[in-house]
Amino acid sequence: MATLESSAPHQAEAQHDLAAINQALDESLRLGPGCPDRLGQAMRYVVLGPGKRLRPRLVLMACRACGGDPAAALPAACAVEMIHAYSLAHDDLPAMDDDDLRRGRPTCHIEFDEATAILVGDALQARAFELLATRVAPEHAARCCGELAQAAGAEKLVGGQAADLCGAFDGATVDDLRAIHARKTGAMFIVSLRLGGILAGASEEQLTRLTDYARSLGLAFQVTDDLLDVSGDQQSVGKRLGKDADRGKLTYPELMGVDQSRQLVVELIDAAAAAVQPLGDAAAPLVELARKLQNRDR
Ligand code: GRG
């Protein structure tokens, strides 16, 4: 079974990053006395649950790839994970995907209640921007806030979710699906890489390379997400397609078939690797992570 954990030679670095991210998330969610206990507990439940921390890891890796100090990027790493975690908690709500399980545990509105799950999202968004505004180097703070706001806003994450929920997919093409996922999934990958680069003082050319990497990686991630749900036998394909069809959702395997979807992942991972190759040895962990994503099982 393949996970996204790194193997040698970058395993120690990956484990160090993961531990640093988890500790920073924990510390940044110790909220003051004004925060009601139940709200604080729910925020911690949503963020500190057993996620892969892929986006915050990408922040640190991009920072290192551009010669920066990853410790200085930790607040940005926490900020993107908080936005991601809020989006999952809201996506799980009855008004959206109506899911009972997330990260192997009851979703926030099941464990707590719907109003709390909504407020958790509101509070996590605010906390994410507070971290960026107050904890990263002042000369980069405004740009980081602006880029994260763009990625999380109506033209990207929220817009992609809204388009997905519309479900007017009769006659939709792979390009239509890509356009939704570029907003719903891709934008948060792109901003993760860009924040890491910005905090390392990366050049515009380096930022463009990180952006190209993230665009391909984000799409590959989405296609593998669809493929994970259909891996196994045709019966499970039918189940997943039936479920998504009920919800008016489209998947890559449904539109292109399983084999072509797998081929698309291979091409996207190659494109991601090629985008950061010119950054040299420092970008090797990004290439390694992309290759692992190709074979991920969760
Ligand atoms: C509610 C504004 C709003 C947006 C929701 C991200 C999203 C938009 C919905 C999630 C639906 C989904 C399952 C998309 C597939 C790709 C994806 C984002 C999977 C979850 O990300 P992981 O696998 O999760 O990185 P962990 O739990 O590991 O952090």
UniProtKB/TrEMBL annotation:
Domain of life (superkingdom): Bacteria
**Does DNA repair appear among the keywords?**
no
GO terms of biological process kind: terpenoid biosynthetic process
EC number(s): the record gives: 2.5.1.10
InterPro entries membership: Isoprenoid_synthase_dom_sf, Polyprenyl_synt, Polyprenyl_synt_CS, Prenyl_diphosphate_synthase
Q: Which cofactor does it need?
A: Mg(2+)
Provide the alphabetized UniProt keywords.
Isoprene biosynthesis, Magnesium, Metal-binding, Transferase
Fetch the SUPFAM superfamilies from UniProt.
Terpenoid synthases
Q: Name one GO molecular function term.
A: metal ion binding
Q: Which NCBIfam families match?
A: FPPsyn
State what protein this is by name. Farnesyl diphosphate synthase
Give the source species: Posidoniimonas corsicana
